[in-house]
What does this fold into?
Amino acid sequence: MKPPIGIFLAFWLLSSASAQTLNWCKSQPRPAYNKLERVKTPDPWFEVYKIVPGVFAIYEPHQFEEVISYLVIGTQKALLFDTGMGISNIKAVVDGLTELPVSVVNSHTHNDHVGDNWRFTDVYGMPTDFTRTNAKGSTADARAELAPGQVCAALPAGFDAKSYRTRAFHITHWLQDGDKINLGDRTLEVISTPGHTPDSIALLDQRNGLLFTGDTFYLGPIYLYRPETDLDAYVLSVKRLAELTPRLQLLLPAHNVPVAQPDYLPRVLDAIQQVRRGQSKPVSRDGQREYMFEGFSFLLSR
Ligand SMILES: [Zn+2]
It folds into this structure.
């Protein structure tokens, strides 16, 4: 007797989903981290790396997004560029790294970058409707982060998956393109980079040649398929960042690996222009079109 096809299908789906999870978990730690200086932190949900003096990457390696938030320290105050998933407590990690007052600035307000904003009293935001809506909190995107295959280690003790959501937060200052945030002996300039979302920004530390790129660029599949993405705006934003390349020493992106060479920026510009001109052929991936390039790809909607 032949088993019904449905059983084969269910088995295949289950085994391919678990194989995917296994592959992602197995590929950790990413080799790039071996070269970085790790800093001890008591919470096993996070890994902290000192990238250059005064700049720490706070990495969440056990969730599929592999999001990276950055703590940048001046002589007078510190700036936290994103607050991560909100699965554990990033404020406790930050409090262990600096005693200075901390302001939160977000690369954009997708759930995986604002999860712990609510724990902070000084939060900067871009004056867009997208930002205002996200500041009210949300549930669906946060829940999806816990779906099967998305988490590859124990969730923090006391974490309640049933009540997990992105909590509302209060924006205390509104930012504009070109604003300079003085941390004391270190200044970060806000560069508006709409595209991935309407409120995406990069931060430029001109004196030290550092560019924090948010989700506009990272090594991996760059998500450009959601309804809030504007591809024309994205091309212009990448162009703007690529023009900075000669002045840069290092890119610090918001996912996967916290260091990348600045010469990726002109390559990303060239790549997205190829995509827009129809000169690059996509492959199909999870219902999206993926355009592959060396070190990164773009995920666009069908
Ligand atoms: Zn994002």
Observations:
- DSSP finds seven helices and 17 strands in the chain.
- The radius of gyration is 19 Å.
